[in-house]
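Protein 1 of 2
SEQ + STRUCT:
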Amino acid sequence: MMTDRPQISFITICYNGFNDTCELIESLEKNIHSVSYEIIVVDNASRADEAIAISKCYPNVITLRSKANLGFSGGNNLGIRIAKGKYIFLINNDTYIETDGFHSLVERLESRPEIGAVSPKIRFAFPPQNIQFTGFTPLTPITLRNSPIGFGHIDDGRFDTPHPSPYLHGAAMIIKREVIEKVGLMPEIYFLYYEEMDWCTQMTNAGYELWYEPRCTIFHKESQSTGQLSKLRTYYMTRNRLLYARRNRTGSHRLLSILYQSTIAAGKNSLQFALKGHFDLFFAVWKGIIGGVFLTPPTITK
């Protein structure tokens, strides 16, 4: 039930995604009965004013519109600033739920004071609805690589044990308000990709544990092969992996990681793109390197 003093503040960003956002809102309103909540939709400078359209369709939903696209972190931070809930739940607008498992997330958060944030099980929305996320492995210290646990597997019960995870998934994560007050808002320097990983790192550095809780499931419309040849994704993944190394590695690991990303990894990736004739992606890699090394503002926003 929606209330003025909610347990959970759901925050979702809408960027030219009116229909997906409506489906998410309807799934939340239809299925959630175990916790009190509010829904906040941030229109991140969509072409049309989707904040107004959503408020007309769903009068109980709180909407606000940004005049500029502030990226994933900036948009979520707008919502966090006005949220009233005890817990902040960041959820992608291209997700939906079929059952109410949110009380289990609250139970996990409240089970120990050290637990600062939790992600539910995330499954792909499209058949066969295999698993996207049931936790992450740790990042390697220099190459900054890790893997989502359970990715692509059938949801057959093998991943139904809750456990700590070094990082949570930005598509669905619930955070104690006190954690945000201690570590700060999501870092906005990234714009897109790696911001939730950096945020999770700040939480663990502050002494909090992050957990995966399988009793709640979110369905995500992202394809298992989405965006692999996107200029935007290539640029930001390259740029922001360097930024993450600069902000979260120290000493020799920091130096070696920056050198590895800007030489071996960039050289290999750009060469592969060039051999396949993807010269836009070739240049996106090196623009990303320049952005990550010299901290230049984002140059690819679409």
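Protein 2 of 2
SEQ + STRUCT:
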Amino acid sequence: MQFGIFTVGDVTTDPTNGTTPSEHDRIKAMTTIALKAEEIGLDVFATGEHHNPPFVPSSPTTMLGWIAARTERLILSTSTTLITTNDPVKIAEDFAMLQHLADGRVDLMLGRGNTGPVYPWFGQDIRQGIPLAIENYALLHRLWREDVVDWEGRFRTPLQGFTSTPRPLDGVPPFVWHGSIRSPEIAEQAAYYGDGFFANNIFWPKEHFQRLIDLYRDRWEHYGHGPRESAVVGLGGQFFMRRNSQDAVREFRPYFDNAPVYGHGPSLEEFTDQTPLTVGSPQEVIEKTLAFRDTFGDYQRQLFLVDHAGLPLKTVLEQLDLLGEDVLPVLRKEFAARRAAGVPEGPTHAARVAERNNAAEQKEGTQR
């Protein structure tokens, strides 16, 4: 089981004092948070991709490359790479380069994003969102696995005898998660390729995500990748902790009420009842996170959103200290004890290289 944090990189005014960080301050805070993630023993740091205010992470690989140079163990990921508006050739190049710089500690989560105007900004039509996601990934998948690619599709100019450089490290492409909050087509796509499916279930009731994950698991088995329990699933989550639950609720409420996405909508109590958001003590975070398994089955990656809604950096770092000291050790122990036999671990580059080599040896043995 892999545990980590993700950021959406919002620049939001702190509702308790009216201060707004500069873009520079927010970017530097995100990198500080990533370094803290490694310090407390987390497995993954992931960043979103946005091209509009109030968000700043327009170049995820630039940020992750900086973090790669300053960490040793942390898996560096995206919580969204826009497969619809980025050229798949550039994605192939950028993430292969990052993979080399980070010695394999890289994966990515493909998604369509939640900002409609981004499509025309990059010359695309939002009405083609699903076809773009399907076609662009079909090309990306080939670019990482074939040394020379001939390609012709609907949405980009043809390729003739094209080689994407650099080639993936050790001949093994970065692991791909397909992220979705609403689209069964994306769950189907993840299952077809034998990739991971990340259900960022931080906004909708759990029943909706149960259906998406069940579809993904069923189609994973249908396409011959193994039993449905062997499918690779990731989940989102959110928390705000203090030692005393009442202190957590009192401190977090103004941030929740004014958050750029769900502020001025449902109450904090309604939202915590229907989504993974936990506002309370470390024990409450432990109990609610462990309950995700009862709803979705065994899964491989849990990412938490912790630095949104104008929370100051000092507060976020305090949250991470609580996570590392009081929550993470218990979650690791309990999830390991409850994991069913045969459920795979979270994907790593080293494990995937070993799997590739073992498969090659077995194939060679059968041909002798």
